[in-house]
Prior knowledge:
Elements: H1 2-9, H2 20-26, H3 36-45, H4 51-61, H5 74-83, H6 88-99, H7 108-127, H8 129-138, H9 147-156, E1 161-162, E2 174-178, E3 183-186, H10 197-205, H11 214-219, H12 224-232, H13 243-253, H14 281-292, H15 300-303, H16 305-310, E4 327-338, E5 347-353, E6 356-362, H17 364-369, H18 371-376, E7 379-389, E8 392-402, H19 440-443, E9 448-450
Parallel strand pairs: 1-3, 4-9, 6-8
Antiparallel strand pairs: 2-3, 4-5, 4-7, 5-6, 7-8
Helix pairs in contact: 2-3, 3-4, 5-6, 7-8, 8-9, 12-13
Amino acid sequence: MVHPYLRRRDGLEEPEYPKPELKEILKRTMGVPLFQEQAMEIAIEAGGFTPAEADQLRRSMASFKANGKLHIYEKKLVDGMVKNGYEEDFARRIFKQLQGFEGYGFPESHAASFALLVYVSSWLKCYYPDVFCATLLNSQPMGFYQPAQIVQDARNHDVQVLPVDVNFSEWDNILEQKGGKYYAVRLGFRQVKGLKEVDMLQLVVMRNGGYQHIDQLRAAGVPETALLKLADADAFRSMGADRRMALWEISALADRPIGLFDGQVSETALEDTFPLPLMTRGEHVVQDYVSTGLSLKDHPVGLVRPQLSRMRNVRISDLSKYKDGDYVSLAGLITVRQRPGTAKGVLFMTLEDETGSANLVVWQKLFDTYRKEIVQSKLLMASGRLQIANGVTHLVVSKCYNLSVLLRSLTETDLPQTLMRGDETTQPVNYDGRSSTVSAEAAIHKGRNFH
């Protein structure tokens, strides 16, 4: 039903009405039955159904295929339409269109309610992408998209997104000063995994003119467990401390003299200091994903772009330079896999790289061949031919490759895995003194699956 309606709406073909009574029913939808009420009217006017029988027809269309019984009405509808002067071929085409309703068609009021939400959301996203981004993030979890995709889309539309910070963030994502055309979105503490709202409200209430040292947060009543989560999220940058330095300082909080010794110098202060090794860009990005599910520093795919370019992968933003039918290869994180029941086994996927998102179409036979790569990959390379129609671009996939191994380069370095003597621990330890068990592959989101 969708494609004939769109072609007629765009003036590519003319509506057809075999009988005046059908024109009266279908004229507002250009001759294509789109709503359940229209299906009932067609059955009554053209097929000779009684209103009660038409309601049974409607119920069978709304069964969501749990016990679909629409097929039992085929003979009655076709025979009734032929008796009323319609060609049998046309009657069967009408029934085939009605079959499209089974498990999918809406009542007109239902469709209008959805359409209103779509139009309002689209209007907000177009004119207020900053508000749209902050509100969606505050409404998580919901919908198709992870916070990482929402943030990237906002940044692609000129919205500045600022990181979580102990001196500026609230619990919710908020709007700050204008960073150009739109307000800047400040990520809230809710984005940090494992933080409790009550602890962060305590932090905000006691913030006053701002924190200058991590010890002030402890004095404000913020638990050490929350401080560790904040350090993991790299939320101390306004104090001049990255996540590694912040973790180091938090570990020293336990050595502060208390009670009778409060105010005295800790013995730790008399020890020699040494510079902490800097984390690589890739390590920061991976840890950002571990703690907040996104990174503002870099995109994981951008960090492995040199390797991808050597495999002749093109950036998603460069697809506009290609034409319909061109054979290309793309690589990106899988964000969505969707296999609707009405698509006859066709899988739709979305890939994301550092420049944008691309839509992929995988036919049933190809999915069976590359099931392992499609299901297990974090970083997928897909090759195929572009299909460009009405300004929409899809990649019709012909080959898939699992490139997740490239993500390991984000955290693998030649530095030693521990600064301690071999007899002090039996498990490799990071420079922050805590065990490292999260790989780059594990940190990156798996993508959401919909059926």
